[in-house]
Design goal:
mainly alpha; Hypothetical protein af1432
């Protein structure tokens, strides 16, 4: 699906939320030649939720610290501005979409955080920028909670999409509600001025054919491939069941990264050498 064809999707009933002030301020600082870390720390520390999210991320297993950190400035130093901005934006999206209003949405956001951390770990193993992979992991499914809020029948469409072997994930969603989470996530990411390559990866991450298109840039395929690997690893660890979406993308992803069966097993086990 290309950018120009998105208009056929019935997204008119969805209101894309504006980018909030705290995220705007963080992005402004990130884009300066010399970001003001004191201002950034102040922006975060006045928000208990943001502060907790930063501390939680930096103390996760993905960073492998010998001791736990307890201050926002320390977390900022280790995370870097890209990841700090991504975490802040994701938390705001979570709050806007009623992340704590239902058990299903709470599970979604918990899963998104875990998948993002797995994306960062796999990216390091594959020598791909980990902060960008982390951002993709957080945002690639951000259209799902918006659709769950706006369409009572979307949960059934999502269940069908997760079980359908012979049909694309987004086609199942469109059959149920007339749109899909990739398109909605793309519009959300674009409206908040996230990097274009990230927006495009969000839009196309359920399109298997992108791995056969010569004009698609490698870094976008890296996002998509790492995302499918991370979802699969999370699926195995959290559910230990069949992963229909990975069965569609496995060959293309392994070929893209040049991974052998042994490399793949090492990634699943979290111990790729090198």
């Amino acid at each position: 699906m290309q950018d120009g064809s998105i208009g056929i999707l019935s997204i008119g009933s969805l209101q894309i939320p504006p980018r909030p002030e705290v995220v705007t301020a963080l992005m402004e600082e990130k884009n300066r030649e010399e970001p003001n870390f004191k201002r950034i720390a102040k922006l975060i520390t006045v928000d208990v939720g943001l502060s907790a999210a930063m501390i939680k991320a930096v103390n996760s297993a993905a960073f492998g610290l010998d001791r736990k950190l307890a201050s926002v400035p320390q977390a900022l130093h280790l995370l870097g501005l890209k990841q700090v901005t991504s975490i802040a934006t994701a938390l705001v999206v979570r709050n806007m979409s009623g992340g704590r209003s239902s058990a299903s949405l709470e599970r979604f956001w918990d899963s998104a955080e875990k998948v993002a951390l797995i994306c960062a770990r796999i990216a390091k193993q594959l020598r791909v920028p980990a902060d960008e992979a982390y951002s993709y992991g957080l945002f690639h499914n951000c259209g799902i909670p918006m659709l769950m809020q706006h369409f009572p029948s979307y949960k059934d469409a999502l269940t069908a999409a997760n079980r359908e072997e012979g049909k694309s994930f987004t086609a199942c969603e469109e059959a149920g509600v007339g749109t899909n989470h990739s398109a909605v996530g793309y519009f959300l990411a674009r409206s908040w001025n996230l990097p274009n390559e990230l927006c495009q990866a969000i839009l196309r991450h359920h399109e298997l054919e992108v791995f056969d298109v010569t004009k698609v840039e490698d870094h976008m395929l890296n996002y998509i491939g790492i995302g499918h690997l991370a979802e699969h690893v999370h699926h195995l660890s959290a559910r230990n069941g069949e992963d229909i979406e990975w069965s569609k993308f496995e060959d293309a992803v392994l070929k893209h990264f040049g991974l052998s069966d042994e490399d793949y097993q090492d990634i699943v086990e979290g111990r790729l050498a090198g």
